[in-house]
Design a protein that fits this description.
5 strands; alpha+beta; two-stranded antiparallel sheet
């Protein structure tokens, strides 16, 4: 029977771990997988951030185009002749928004008449308590030859949490996106 001392066992274990680490360091078979694992999280985060930023810009452009197109109904007197309400005009804007955001639930529309273009100043963004404040919004499309300003706003949800902190200006990880159109109604009588 061979008796080993505790120090000999400890020394053997240290040598064993060292040889395992040396062999692991020399083995290059899994290096690609390890490198990919280290780079995957930052790479995918960057891809998602680019996608989120692109969707924000696309949603802003889609909203601006929809507001401009629907505002022509007011400018030409078609909305007034049809007796549009604020809900009807909102539905016209939403008809022009295909798939970038939930238009019926997110969109708020404000249509006001001004005596001249100089008086049609841009008010500050309608934010109160970190939320979109649409209490001052209304629908007054005006009559022939009147100056009208149409504003539309949405609380766009930001999904990617990494860029959410730098892009959001509302509570609950949301971004206020606004579009507007200012024009003089045509003499449509």
């Amino acid at each position: 029977m061979v008796v080993r001392s505790d120090t000999a066992d400890a020394k053997q274990r240290r040598i064993g771990w060292r040889s395992v680490l040396r062999r692991f360091r020399r083995d290059r078979k899994g290096s690609t997988a390890v490198e990919f694992a280290m780079l995957a999280v930052p790479f995918l985060s960057l891809v998602f951030a680019i996608f989120e930023t692109s969707m924000v810009h696309l949603s802003g452009q889609v909203l601006q185009t929809a507001v401009s197109d629907a505002s022509r109904l007011i400018m030409t007197g078609q909305a007034q002749a049809a007796g549009f309400t604020g809900v009807d005009f909102k539905n016209e804007v939403c008809k022009r928004v295909k798939a970038t955001f939930d238009c019926p639930n997110l969109l708020q529309v404000d249509v006001k008449v001004f005596p001249n273009f100089a008086a049609a100043t841009a008010p500050p963004p309608p934010i109160a308590g970190g939320k979109l404040d649409s209490t001052g919004f209304g629908f007054v499309p005006g009559g022939p030859n009147q100056i009208v300003v149409v504003r539309a706003a949405i609380e766009y949800p930001i999904v990617v949490p990494l860029i959410g902190q730098t892009m959001v200006n509302l509570a609950d990880n949301r971004l206020l996106i606004m579009a507007s159109a200012a024009f003089k109604n045509e003499p449509y009588n």
